[in-house]
């Protein structure tokens, strides 16, 4: 069980640890497949336990906007923290909890242990470690589902030694407690937190094509001290970042470094899908691909955005910080994130972008009714004509339909969902709706295919 006063680790070879992780992962069972798909549930969907039928679709969207601003601030803190941690070369002062965001928009169902216990968790491309609340619980937030009891799982294995490879894989998350106990600690930007034991167990995913997919020896956090602003209907986090302890990296050998997702519109009665391995390949007419960049010291997914074109005018990027943690020559200036609704671009670039949209849009401008400080809003009527908007990446042009850049925020009013920021640039999930988006970590690419995600199975 987790205890206070973490003890620093000695230096280690991360390469050898990654090889070890790939060796201990068993292949998929129940069907022996190298690819599978499962459901992603938007927190505001009628399929979500967080859904409140008394709230209007507009009220839910307004809340999502406010969560976006909070999440963007957390990203900035996390990147600054990662940079500081890298510069300290993992000194004793750097062994501390990661700062991340708990405000992801999508939920995923996973079952843990043998016999399997269902867990509904936030699926987050911005988080590393997967964790859930566990018995015995020193401090836990209230959750509707029963707590996971590791003593009742025949496949649960606690990582007992601080010298175990799993315990040394990510010193920003894992800590060594007195008594040589391997633990973890994560702190979130809203002062939520989770602390507990590092362990392995069997994870079972419900396949969207029927049946279950079980994966042995998945490393996760068994949280005995958890608190903050977590919802009662969720039990923890499923980390989908490129961090060493994320689900994506742990399954790397089995899924060949590939995953993809297809996000349905917010008001859809269908679930979004996430695909792994052979199911995640994005190909065919209409696909555009761009380079995926990695930053030393942090685990987000970076793209190089050259700018936007509006009509026939290209607005070049301005004011981007390269956000690198090692070299000013590194590429990658914007984070691709599934948990943020809005898209954030540097203020210096936003100004000419906004001016060009206003000049070319035919319609009646109105004030923002959301209170989220959206700058460009129009009456939604038959006279409204929005210009063609394209996201221009270093090696690809992505045409963005009006529904990806504008959203109806109140009855008869649409607003631009790309906003200015002084912090981390982020491509949010509103911009990603109805694209099949494939991540290939082996070849270092992200691919986009325009898709009706309600029909993506």
TrEMBL record:
Naturally occurring in which organism (per UniProt): Coffea canephora
Alphabetical list of Gene3D superfamilies matching this protein: Acid Proteases
GO molecular function, one term: aspartic-type endopeptidase activity
Keywords annotated in UniProt: Aspartyl protease, Glycoprotein, Hydrolase, Protease, Secreted, Signal
Source organism superkingdom: Eukaryota
Origin organism lineage: Eukaryota, Viridiplantae, Streptophyta, Embryophyta, Tracheophyta
Gene Ontology, cellular component aspect: extracellular region
GO biological process assignments: proteolysis
Record-linked PANTHER family: ASPARTIC PROTEINASE CDR1-LIKE, OS07G0603500 PROTEIN-RELATED
Annotated protein name in UniProt: Peptidase A1 domain-containing protein
Residue ranges occupied by any Peptidase A1 domain in the UniProt entry: 106-449
UniProt keyword annotation of Signal present: yes
Signal peptide: 1-31
